[in-house]
Batch of 2 targets.
Target 1
Amino acid sequence: MTQLLLLIVALLVLGHVPPGRSEFKRCWKGQGACRTYCTRQETYMHLCPDGSLCCLPYGLKAPAAPKPESV
């Protein structure tokens, strides 16, 4: 009886664990998230390998490229 109860609890817990790679795809050195749409607090940087958008929070924008020095 105890083993049956333990099995039921284990199955219930495993049912609530999110899938490994489908919902939590990361991009931009782990700072962004691959999504179909970016939220209002995020900006689009580039495409992820699966074709979705790489969304970064506005505070984590990529640094601007340095301007070349004019002589």
Note: Residues 17-62 form one domain.
Target 2
Amino acid sequence: MAKGKDVRVTVILECTSCARNNVNRVSTGISRYITQKNRHNTPNRLELRKFCPYCYKHTIHGEIKK
């Protein structure tokens, strides 16, 4: 019996302000978080407010492709 597509998938969240501003001049890097989402409940891209250590504040982290 084939499982098909998994309901729970692993996604990567990336800071949108770091990516948009080509990273801060002082520090190098882009904040990324790894989490899971339920494909049935959230079919579109996931966006969460998480802490970015490079911006030193809470920013929106959006789902990116692997």
Note: The radius of gyration is 14 Å.
